Amino acid sequence: MDLEAARKAVAGAKRVAVLTGAGISAESGVPTFRSWGGLWRGFSAEDLATPEGFARDPKQVWEWYDWRRSQMAEASPNPGHYALADFAKRSTGFTLITQNVDGLHERAGSPDVLRLHGSIWHTRCLTCAKEEEDRRERIPDLPPKCQSCGGMLRPAVVWFGEVLPPEVFDQALAATLACDVFLVAGTSAAVHPAASLVPLAASSGATVIEVNPEETDVSDVVHHTLRGPSGVILPQLLSPRLG
Ligand code: BV8
Ligand code: ZN
Q: How many Å lie between the centroid of ligand 2 and the Cα of residue 107?
């Protein structure tokens, strides 16, 4: 495992960009999409995390989010989240891009997180489009209603078939094109366009480092492969050289 070579690349980089996925929250006890076999009451994420799924049965989709929110409320950031937050505070030219909606990067103290797929802790009104933070561990009556206009609320996340927030994706693109080192951690890189940032970084001349216990869809474009859990590897990779 070329940890030393990867550490050298990070230490020598002017600009570092990071893309994280569900795997970085696994050690916090938040199941990854794949770990629960993508099935909840027999439904897959692709059935539930879609506008069609929500239109068909908003209460059921909200029950799924309420279940996931309750799991995420129990979770705390792990050493992988903290390693990224501490590195950000010590660096300039650092950008954190996440596919996760669990808010654990923010809770670990990461500033300016680029959330490509939104936040499970925010709701948006289907009628007046008002977006609000809602940190309640359980939401009493599902689907929740808008306090301002009484309209139905949806989770403020990006569903399959929906476009990513353009201003967030543009910043992620710019950081990917400008970085010297691109670190991809805890993602199977199966979901687009987020996953496309990895080959884009490689083709733009960045050194790509992957942190994942398993092979992924982008392992073929990676320069340094660090096979293991991000909660162990990220602190080793990002900690300031000791002594
Ligand atoms: C769009 C928010 C179009 C919601 C999410 C065919 C080919 C290519 C693309 C498509 C296609 N058919 C359809 C598409 C497009 C589709 C897509 O990519 N589908 C996939 C399934 C093929 N994409 C979209 O629909 C996107 N929108 O394309 O719009 C468009 C264009 C113009 C105009 C209109 C429309 C929107 C995608 C966003 C979906 N929303 N999340 C919610 O959370 O409820 S995606 C969701 O799933 C996550 O956010 C994340 O992105 C993804 C799960 O992936 P991972 O995070 O990687 O997690 P996963 O479980 O898969 O893997 C975990 C990894 O961690 C593993 O590798 C494991 O080894 C590793 N791991 C485990 N333990 C650890 C670890 N790593 C480190 N340490 C550990 N301890
Ligand atoms: Zn409203």
A: 28
When computed from its CA atoms, the radius of gyration of the chain, rounded to whole angstroms, is 18
Torsion of CA 198, 199, 200, 201, to 10 degrees: 60
Question: At a CB cut-off of 8 Å and minimum separation 6, what does 4 contact?
Answer: none
CA distance 15 to 1: 23
Ligand 1 nearest atom to the CA of residue 161, by list position:
25
- CB of 101 shorter than 6 A to ligand 1: yes
CB contact at 8 A, 88 and 111: yes
Angle formed at CA 238 by CA 89 and CA 121, multiple of 5 degrees:
60
- CA-nearest residue for atom 52, ligand 1, is 191
Question: Would you say the pTM of this structure is higher than 0.90?
Answer: yes
Q: Which ligand is nearest to the CA of 34?
A: 1
Question: What whole-number distance in Å separates Cα of residue 226 and Cα of residue 155?
Answer: 34
Digit-coded pLDDT (tens) for 18-64: 999 999 999 999 988 777 666 778 888 888 999 999 999 999 999 99
41 lines ligand 1 (CB under 6 A): no
Q: Which of 194, 242, 243 is nearest to 218 (CA)?
A: 194
For residue 186, which ligand has an atom nearest its CA? 1
